[in-house]
Amino acid sequence: MPQDTTGFSDHNHRDCVSTGLSAADAKCATQGLNMTPVRRRVLEILLEAHEALGAYDVLARLSEEGLGSKPPVAYRALGFLVDHGFAHRIEKLNAFVACALPGADHTPAFLICRGCKTVAEAEDVSVGLRRSAQASGFVVEHTIIEAEGLCPECQDAA
Questions:
Q1: Which of 13, 2, 3 is CA-nearest to residue 46?
Q2: Could you tell me the pTM of the whole model?
Q3: 78-83: which pairs have CB atoms within 8 A and are 24 or more residues apart?
């Protein structure tokens, strides 16, 4: 399902936080997944931040709130969220972002601003890649598409 790029434009932030949490709750309920309080809080932290956060940034927030101070707490929660499509790992930044299309089956591409480090989730661009792989008999198991450039605000500032 094509979408506009999410991340560089104004939107109802409160709505996207509640939509993300609701979609995660619904998926957990239908698939029997255990959304623990720590996992839910980590997802909420990512949704509230609306930017890529490192595991130690997440851990600092959890520690401030008394939800854990050891790295495995954050890494386990982030792993769960990524494994179930509630969040994505941004390889270039060694960081995590909440999924902008919660509940959708998609392989997003990420647009990373080299100025402000904002990350936007773009529509699924892997169709051509899957088609090429299929034509050559290759089975794609995992795709990471990240592009680096300048967001509109950083272009204006330059």
A1: 13
A2: 0.85
A3: 78/42, 80/39, 81/39, 81/42, 81/43, 81/46
- Give the pLDDT confidence of 49-74 residue by residue, as tens digits: 878 999 999 999 999 999 988 999 99
Quote the pLDDT of residue 6.
55
Question: How far apart are alpha carbons 42 and 47 in whole angstroms?
Answer: 9
Judge contact between 124 and 88, C-beta under 8 A.
no
Q: Flag whether 4 is in a domain.
A: no
- Amino acid (1-letter code) at residue 39: R
Nearest to 73 by CA among 38, 21, 33, 24: 38
Residue 17 belongs to domain with CATH number:
1.10.10.10
Residue at 1 is within a domain: no
Residue 89 placed within a domain: yes
| C-alpha span between 156 and 158 (Å, rounded) | 6
CA distance 19 to 70: 29
118: in domain = yes
Domain count, the chain: 1
b/e sequence 51-71, b meaning 16+ C-beta within 10 Å: bbbebebbbebbeeeebbeee
